[in-house]
Design brief:
The protein has about 550 residues and is of the alpha/beta class. Helices cover about 30% and strands about 20% of the residues.
Length: about 550
C-alpha cells in the first residue's frame, strides 16, 4: 500500500485525543516513578533508624506531591512562586528537609535529637559541597555540630552573583549593595582559607568577585597564603568590573583603561596567587602593550582563559604564547586580530563577535587544536575562507559556526582546496541560519570532510539575541553548485536539523543528504528551538 503525505495529517479532534493520551501516559509514568523513589526513601530511613524505630514515633511525614509544570517535585509545606528564583526554592527545600530530619518537636518528645547532624562528616561534606559555599555556611549555622564543616570543604565556590543565595542581576544592584557583597566575598574567602586544616587538599576553589582593589588584595593574599601552606588543585578567578553588563554600553574607553590599570596593580601585588591559577576569566578591560604578555607569563599554570569585552585598543592585535593553555575563549572586544603564536597544548578555541569583516584568528604553532567555534553576525558582503583560516590547523575534528540569524559569512569552497584542512573533521554544527535561507549550500561541508560523522543544521531567526543597532542583511541565499553530481559520503552517521519545515527547501536537502550518505543511521528533524529569555515574546519568535 502506498501512502501519501495527506494520510499522515490528523484533524484537530484526533490531535487533541492523541495529546491527551500522551499527557495521561506521561503523568502516570511520572507518578509511578516518584512513588517508587518514595518507597526507596522510606526503606532507607527505616534501615537507618534501626533499633530506634520502635521507641520513636515520627510526628511529621515528608510527603512528595504532584509534579509542577516544570517537572520539579515539591515538598509539602512549600508553595511555588513564579517570582522566586529556582535557587531560592531549592534552598527552602533544603531547610525544610533539615527540619524534617530533626525529627519530632522537642517540646513533645524529650528523646528527640538532631539526626541530620549525626550523619558522618564525610557524608555531610559531600552534601554541602554540592551547594554554593554561601548556602553551605548558612546551612551549618542550624547546628553547633555543623559549624566546623565549612573550613573542611574541599570544593569551595564563592560567587559574587549568589551572595544572597539566589542570582543577583548586577544591572539592578545598587552601588552600596555591590560594595557590601564584594566585601562579603573577600571576608568569607579569608575566613575559610585561614581556618581550614593545613593537611586538607582543596580540590576546587572558584572565586567570582568585582575588581575593587582593597577586596582584591584581601582575596589574593588569602589565596597566596593557602597556596603556600596547603595543596590547591584547581583555582579559578572570575574577575568582574563595576560595569560588566552584556553589551558594555556604559563602559567608556576611559573606564576600560582604568580597569586595566587596576588589574595590573592586583597582579603586581599578588603574583603568587595568579601563578597558581588554572582558570582565569576577565571582563571589560583594555590592556596596555605589555599587559597581556605579562598576565600570561605570571599565570604559569593557566589552562583556561576567558576574555569578555577585552582588547588592547580599537583595531588592536592580541598575541598569545603559553605552554599550558588548553582552552581560549574570546568574546566581543574591539580588537582586529587574535594571533596564536605558540600554544603547544591548546585544544579548544572560541571566538565570538569580532568587530571587523576579516579573519579574526591567525594560527601559529597549535598542534593539538581540535575544536573551533566561531560566532558572529556580519552584514557586509565579505566572507571567510576556511581553507585560508585553517591552513595551519589540519587536526580540527569539531567545528561550530554560528551566524546569529544574519548573513552567511563563510564562503563555500570546492573539496579540492578545502579537504586538506577538513580531512579529520568529525562533527559540524551550523547554527542560527536565517529562516528562508536555502540550506543546500551546507553540502559543501559534507563534500569537503570525508571523515564527517555528525552534521547539525539550525535554522532560526533568533530575534531576542539581536540588538537594535544591527542593520540586518536582506540577502538570504548563498550560491553553491556541487562539482560532483555522483558524490557519496561513506562516514556520515547522523543528520540533525532544528527549525525544520515541510517545504521543498528542507525536504530536498534531507533527500540529497540521505542519498549521498548510504550508511547514515539517524535523521532527526525538529521544530524551532525554544527560547527561554524572558524578553523573547511570541512577536519576536514569529
Amino acid at each position: 500500500m502506498v501512502l501519501s503525505a495527506e494520510d499522515y495529517v490528523h484533524d484537530n479532534e484526533e490531535e487533541e485525543v492523541v495529546i491527551a493520551q500522551v499527557a495521561a501516559m506521561s503523568a502516570a509514568e511520572a507518578q509511578t516513578r516518584w512513588r517508587r523513589e518514595e518507597a526507596d526513601a522510606v526503606r532507607q530511613v527505616r534501615e537507618y533508624e534501626g533499633a530506634h524505630r520502635e521507641e520513636r514515633v515520627r510526628r511529621e511525614k515528608l510527603e512528595i506531591v504532584e509534579l509542577d509544570a516544570e517537572n520539579d517535585f515539591m515538598f509539602k509545606g512549600l508553595q511555588p512562586n513564579l517570582y522566586r528564583g529556582r535557587s531560592t526554592f531549592r534552598r527552602e527545600m533544603a531547610l525544610l528537609l533539615h527540619k524534617k530530619l530533626l525529627g519530632c518537636n522537642k517540646e513533645e518528645d524529650a528523646s528527640c535529637r538532631d539526626r541530620f547532624s549525626e550523619l558522618p562528616d564525610a557524608l555531610l561534606l559531600n552534601i554541602l559541597e554540592r551547594l554554593g559555599t554561601f548556602d553551605a555556611v548558612r546551612a551549618c549555622v542550624l547546628s553547633n555540630h555543623l559549624l566546623k564543616l565549612p573550613a573542611m570543604l574541599s570544593r569551595i565556590s564563592i560567587d559574587f552573583f549568589y551572595i544572597s543565595g539566589e542570582y543577583v542581576d548586577p544591572n539592578y544592584l545598587e552601588f552600596d549593595d555591590m560594595v557590601r557583597a564584594n566585601r562579603a566575598v573577600a571576608d568569607l574567602t579569608d575566613k575559610i582559607l585561614t581556618t581550614g586544616p593545613p593537611q586538607l587538599t582543596i580540590r576546587e576553589l572558584n572565586l567570582t568577585f568585582v575588581l575593587r582593589l582593597d577586596d582584591c588584595l584581601s582575596i589574593g593574599r588569602s589565596v597566596a597564603r593557602a597556596m603556600g601552606t596547603r595543596k590547591l588543585n584547581t583555582v579559578q578567578f572570575k574577575i568582574l568590573t563595576e560595569k560588566h553588563d552584556l553589551v558594555c554600553e556604559d563602559c567608556t574607553p576611559a573606564d576600560l583603561l582604568s580597569f586595566g590599570k587596576q588589574l595590573n596593580a592586583f597582579l603586581a601585588a599578588c603574583p603568587d596567587a595568579f601563578a597558581g591559577l588554572a582558570i582565569l576569566e576577565l571582563q571589560s578591560l583594555r590592556f596596555g602593550e605589555s599587559d597581556l604578555p605579562n598576565i600570561l607569563a605570571t599565570c604559569k599554570r593557566l589552562e583556561y582563559l576567558i576574555l569578555e569585552h577585552c582588547d588592547a585598543g580599537i583595531g588592536s592585535t592580541l598575541k598569545f604564547e603559553h605552554d599550558q593553555l588548553v582552552e581560549l575563549k574570546i568574546m566581543y572586544g574591539e580588537y582586529e586580530t587574535v594571533e596564536l603564536h605558540r600554544l603547544p597544548k591548546l585544544q579548544r578555541v572560541t571566538c565570538e563577535t569580532w568587530d571587523h569583516d576579516g579573519s579574526p584568528l591567525v594560527f601559529g604553532f597549535v598542534p593539538h587544536l581540535s575544536k573551533l567555534s566561531l560566532i558572529n553576525y556580519i552584514t557586509s558582503n565579505r566572507t571567510l575562507r576556511l581553507s585560508k583560516l585553517l591552513a595551519n590547523v589540519p587536526n580540527i575534528c569539531d567545528l561550530h559556526l554560528d551566524f546569529e540569524s544574519e548573513k552567511i559569512w563563510v564562503r563555500p569552497e570546492s573539496p579540492r582546496v578545502l579537504t586538506p584542512v577538513l580531512d579529520k573533521l568529525r562533527t559540524v554544527n551550523l547554527d542560527n541560519i536565517r529562516e528562508g535561507c536555502d540550506i543546500s549550500w551546507t553540502m559543501f561541508m559534507l563534500e569537503a570532510a570525508p571523515s564527517l560523522e555528525e552534521l547539525c543544521v539550525t535554522v532560526w531567526d533568533h530575534w531576542c539575541k539581536q540588538v537594535p543597532y544591527r542593520a540586518h542583511s536582506k540577502k538570504k541565499y548563498v550560491k553553491w553548485k556541487s562539482p560532483d553530481s555522483d558524490f557519496k559520503h561513506d562516514n556520515l552517521a547522523k543528520l540533525t536539523i532544528f527549525g525544520f519545515q515541510p517545504d521543498s527547501n528542507f525536504m530536498g536537502y534531507v533527500t540529497c543528504v540521505v542519498e549521498a550518505a548510504p550508511r547514515i543511521m539517524e535523521v532527526s528533524l525538529h521544530d524551532r528551538k525554544k527560547c527561554y529569555n524572558n524578553f523573547a515574546t511570541s512577536e519576536h519568535l514569529k
